Amino acid sequence: MSEEDDTWTADRKNKDMRMFQSCSSFELSDPHDPVLSRLATQMFKRTNDYLQGEMTAGQDHYVLLEEINRLVITKYADLRSLAVNLTKSINESNEKYETEIKPLLQHIEDIDNEMSVLEATAFRLDSYTKQLLARFVELLDIDNNSNEK
C-alpha cells in the first residue's frame, strides 16, 4: 500500500463518508466539519452582501429613473406651455393679418391695378397727342404752302 492509503484508516473513511453523505441537508444532530460550517457561513454572508448590493443597485436605478422621469415631465411641461404660447401668438398674428394687413395689401393691389390702367391710358393719350401734333404740323405745312403760292 502507498503512504496515502496508510494514513487513511477505515475509521477515518467512515467518518468522512458520514459527514459528506448529502450536500443538501444540514442537520444539527449530525456531526459536521467546522471549516465547512465557517465556509458556508462566509458564503451565505457574501451571497447576502451580493444580493443586498444588487437590490440596492436596483433601487438606485429606480430612484434615478424616477428623477429622470420628473425632469422629463418638467421639460415636456415647459415645451407644452411654449407650444401653447406659440400657438396663441400665431393665431393672434393670423388674426391681425386677416383684419389689418390683408385689407391694406388688397388696397395696394387695387392701387397697382389702377396705376397700370392709368399708365396704359397715359401712353394712349401720349400717342394720340403725337398723332394730333403730326397732323397739326402737316396742316400748317399745307397752309403755308398754299399761302406762298
Automatic annotation (TrEMBL):
Which InterPro entries would you find in this protein's record? BLOC1_su2
- What GO MF terms are annotated? gamma-tubulin binding
Pfam entry (one):
BLOC1_2
GO BP annotations listed: endosomal transport; lysosome localization
Superkingdom as given in the UniProt entry: Eukaryota
* Any one cellular-component term (Gene Ontology): gamma-tubulin complex
Family of this protein: Belongs to the BLOC1S2 family.
Q: What is this protein called?
A: Biogenesis of lysosome-related organelles complex 1 subunit 2
Q: Which organism is it from?
A: Papilio machaon (Old World swallowtail butterfly)
